[in-house]
Design goal:
This protein is an alpha+beta fold and 493 residues long. 40% of the residues lie in helices and 17% in strands. The protein binds adenosine-5'-diphosphate (ADP), magnesium ion and zinc ion.
Length: 493
C-alpha cells in the first residue's frame, strides 16, 4: 500500500478507449482512416440520418474478443447494445451505441510489472464495444489554425469508428502505477494488432478516476480527469489532482464528484463546479441491433489465433536467449523492436550482444532522431555486419560505436567505413608478438619489476603498444601476449 506522508492513500481507476483499426466503421461501410480531408468518409448512417439501419462489423467483434481474452476476461456468450443518450454537436444521432449491463467481456485482469520488478494485478471490470463520436475541431486551435477564430467545426470522419472501452477496477494507487498500467496495456494492444494505439492521434485515449481516503476507511468521492492523452500528462495530472484533493480535505472541504480539468501549461487542476454533473443517459436497449451471440467454438478459435503477447515473449527471451528479466522486458514490450532484435540475434548468432546493441546504441539513435524502428537508416543486415566485426575482434567496442555513428550519418556499411578510415583492430598474433618482444627488449627495467610481482607495470607495456598502434591493438590478445612474453623473458624460466 502506498500512503502519502499525510496518511492518505490515492485510489485510481482508468477508463481506456481504444479505436479499432478495422477497415470500415462499426455500423456502416465508410473507411476508418486518420488524417483524411474532413467529412469525406461519411454516409447517411454515420451522419445519423433518420431511417438508416446499422449493420454490425464482425471484425470489430473479433477484435473486442481478442482484447477481452488477452485481458483474461470472461467472454459473454450473450451481450447486447444500449443507447446512451446525450446531446453534443459531435453526436448527430443524439445517442452513442454502447454496451451497458451486458458487456462483451467481464472480470479480467492485467498483471502490471512495476519499476521494482513486483507485479500489480489490476482488475479489469469490463471491456465493451461502442461507436466513437465525431471530432470537434476548434477553428482557432492547433487543428483548425484560423487565427482568432472562436467557433468550432465538426469532422464526421471519426464518427462511427469502432471503440473498445476498457474499465479497470479502482486498484491503482499511484500515478506511476497508472502510467505503468497504461504503458503495458498499450504494448498488449499493439501486439494484438487491433489498434494503432497512438495517443497523439487519439486512437488510444485515457480517462482517470481519482479519489483519496485514509486506508481502512471507505473510498472517498472521486473526480474524473478526461482525455489524459500522453503518458506524461496522465502522470502529472494525477499527481496534481491527488495533491488538490488531499489539501482540500485537510482544509475540511468536501470533494465534489465532477470532471476536473488539468492544464498542461500551468500544471494545475481546475474544477468547473458545474451543478449539472450527474448525467442521466437514459440507457435503453438498442432496438436496431440484434444481440451478440458468441459460441464457445468461436471464442476458442479467436483464442487460438492470438499472437504471442508481450509477457510470453519476455519469458521466451529469458529462456531461449538467456537475457536478464530487465533486458527481456524492454525488448519484448515493443513489437517492432522485438522483431528487429530477433532477426539481429539470428543473423549474428550473438543474442546478448544483439540485445545490448538494440537497447543501447540502436535505440539511442532512434530516440535521438525521433524515428520508429521501420524508419531506421541502419538495417538489421548492416548492424549484423558491424557486430560481426566486433565479435571477430576486428573492431573494439569503442571503435564499433564510432563506426555505428558513421553508418547512421553516411549510410555506408561497416566494412566500407573500416577500410576507408583505416580502422580495424590488430588481432594478428604474429604482428603483435613482434612488437611485444621489441618493447620488452627495450625496457629491461620495467620487465624485471613485473617479474618481481609489480603487476601494475603491465599497464605501462599495454600503454606503449596502444600508443604505437594508435589504439588499434586488440586489448585481450595484447594482454595475453604481454603476460606470456614477460614471464617467458625471465632469466629464471
Ligand atoms: P460510472 O458508471 O460512473 O462510469 P463506474 O463504476 O463504471 O462508474 O466506474 C468508472 C471508473 O471509476 C472505474 O475505472 C472505477 O475503477 C473507477 N472508480 C470507481 N470508484 C472509484 C473511487 N472511489 N475512486 C477512484 N476511482 C473509482
Ligand atoms: Mg463508466
Ligand atoms: Zn458511414
Amino acid at each position: 500500500m502506498m500512503v502519502t506522508p499525510e496518511g492518505w492513500e490515492a485510489v485510481i481507476g482508468l477508463e481506456i478507449h481504444v479505436q479499432l483499426n478495422t477497415a470500415t466503421k462499426m455500423f456502416c461501410g465508410c473507411p476508418v482512416s486518420f488524417g483524411d480531408v474532413p467529412n469525406t468518409n461519411v454516409c447517411p448512417l454515420c451522419l445519423g440520418h433518420p431511417g438508416t439501419l446499422p449493420a454490425m462489423n464482425e471484425k470489430a467483434i473479433e477484435y473486442a474478443t481478442r482484447i477481452g481474452l488477452a485481458l483474461n476476461c470472461t467472454i459473454s456468450p450473450h451481450s447486447i447494445f444500449h443507447r446512451k443518450n446525450y446531446f453534443y454537436p459531435d453526436l448527430p444521432k443524439g445517442y452513442q451505441i454502447s454496451q451497458y449491463d451486458l458487456p462483451l467481456a467481464v472480470d479480467g485482469h492485467l498483471d502490471v510489472e512495476l519499476e521494482d520488478g513486483s507485479i500489480l494485478r489490476v482488475g479489469v471490470t469490463r471491456a465493451h464495444l461502442e461507436d466513437d463520436a465525431a471530432k470537434l475541431v476548434h477553428a482557432g486551435g492547433v487543428d483548425g489554425r484560423i487565427a482568432g477564430a472562436d467557433y468550432s467545426m465538426v469532422d464526421f470522419n471519426r464518427g462511427g469508428t469502432p471503440l473498445v472501452e476498457i474499465v479497470s477496477e479502482p486498484e491503482i494507487h499511484t500515478p506511476e502505477q497508472a502510467r505503468a498500467y497504461l504503458t503495458q496495456l498499450k504494448s498488449l494492444l499493439e501486439a494484438l494488432e487491433v489498434s494503432d494505439v497512438n495517443m497523439e492521434e487519439g486512437s488510444l485515449r485515457c480517462d482517470a478516476n481519482i479519489s483519496v481516503h485514509r486506508p481502512g476507511t471507505p473510498f472517498g468521492t472521486r473526480t474524473e480527469l478526461k482525455n489524459m492523452n500522453s503518458f506524461r500528462f496522465l502522470q502529472r495530472g494525477l499527481e496534481a489532482e491527488i495533491e488538490r484533493q488531499i489539501s482540500a480535505l485537510e482544509r475540511g472541504e468536501e470533494i465534489v464528484q465532477e470532471t476536473v480539468h488539468f492544464d498542461t501549461g500551468s500544471g494545475k487542476v481546475s474544477t468547473l463546479r458545474s451543478k449539472e454533473e450527474a448525467h442521466d443517459y437514459r440507457y435503453f436497449p438498442e432496438p436496431d441491433m440484434v444481440p451478440i451471440e458468441l459460441s464457445a467454438e468461436y471464442v476458442e478459435k479467436v483464442r487460438a489465433g492470438l499472437p504471442e503477447l508481450p509477457a510470453a515473449r519476455k519469458e521466451r527471451y529469458m529462456r531461449d536467449y538467456g537475457l536478464s528479466p530487465y533486458d527481456a522486458g524492454v525488448l519484448s514490450a515493443n513489437r517492432p523492436l522485438a522483431a528487429f532484435f530477433e532477426r539481429l540475434s539470428t543473423q549474428t548468432g550473438e543474442a546478448k550482444l544483439a540485445a545490448n546493441w538494440v537497447m543501447g546504441d540502436f535505440s539511442g539513435y532512434l530516440n535521438a532522431q525521433g524515428l520508429e524502428v521501420k524508419d531506421s537508416a541502419v538495417s538489421v543486415e548492416a548492424l549484423a555486419e558491424l557486430l560481426g566485426l566486433l565479435a571477430a575482434g576486428t573492431l573494439s567496442g569503442k571503435m564499433a560505436k564510432d563506426v555505428f555513428a558513421a553508418m547512421v550519418e553516411t549510410g555506408k556499411g561497416a566494412p566500407e567505413l573500416v577500410a576507408e578510415r583505416g580502422l580495424g583492430q590488430i588481432s594478428d598474433t604474429g604482428e603483435l608478438e613482434t612488437m611485444v618482444s621489441e618493447l620488452i627488449a627495450a625496457n629491461p627495467g620495467p620487465a624485471e619489476e613485473y617479474r618481481q610481482g609489480r603487476d601494475r607495470v603491465l599497464g605501462f607495456f599495454v600503454g606503449q603498444i596502444m600508443k604505437q598502434t594508435r589504439g588499434q591493438a586488440n586489448p585481450q590478445l595484447l594482454n595475453e601476449l604481454l603476460r606470456k612474453a614477460l614471464a617467458g623473458s625471465s632469466p629464471d624460466n
